[in-house]
Structure formats: structure tokens, C-alpha cells
Amino acid sequence: MTQREPTVVVAAALLDGDRLLAARRSAPPELAGRWELPGGKVEPGERPEAALVRELREELGVECEAVERVPGEWPLRPPYVLQVWTARLRPASPAPAALEDHDALRWLTPAEIWDVAWLDQDVPAVREVVTRLGSRAR
After folding, report:
1. Which residue from 53, 32, 54 is spatially nearest to 101, judged by alpha carbons?
2. Which residue of 2, 80, 94, 100 shows the fewest CB atoms closer than 10 Å?
């Protein structure tokens, strides 16, 4: 029996200075009302960085660039795994808008990071992002 390769879901630690963008899920019902790092599935043959740019264009209407991958990989429901990339908006990009699968967006300062109810599976990734941001600020 061969083990299937996991399907990668990319998420963006979209940054504006020291603020991190959080997106509140509107669907599916079991995830609605909880917050996540925006992103989505990597399609077959697609590079993770390209998937991140595409997903943020579709979900938020923005033009961004992937900066660097956050170390680590976090399990979601099988066969999915989460990878996080830091990302920044391109200079001419419109402001993020909740277009698809989200009903609210919020820029969180470091002091506000834990003020939202993150999806359980995003918590370890958000912790890693916060750790990395804190070490950059020193």
C-alpha cells in the first residue's frame, strides 16, 4: 500500500509593518466565525509561492508577493498540511477585502494577536509567526 503525499495548504502571514492580517471564516459552518491566516490549496504542478499569490488575489482581491517560508509544517485534516509564508502587499495593490470564504478582516498589532478566536489548526502556525516577528524586532 502506498502512502499518498499530503496536499499542501499555503497560508499568508500578510504583514503591514508589525501588523498581521487575520481573516474570519464565513464557511463551512463548522469553521464560521473563527479566524485564520488567509490562503488555500496548492494545485497540482503549482509552486507554493504561486499558490499563495493566487489564493490571496481570489480571497482578498490583493496583489502580493511571498517573502519567505515560515519554518514548520502543521497537520490539518488528512491529507492536508499547512505551510505558512510571510507575504507583503505590492505597492499598487488595493486594500484587502473579504471576498471569498471570509466575512471580516482585521489587522492585528502584536498586542492584539490573541484577541481573536483562531482556528485550532492555525494556532501553532500563528505562534511560530509571532515568534519570528518578535525575533526580527530585537
Report:
1. 32
2. 2
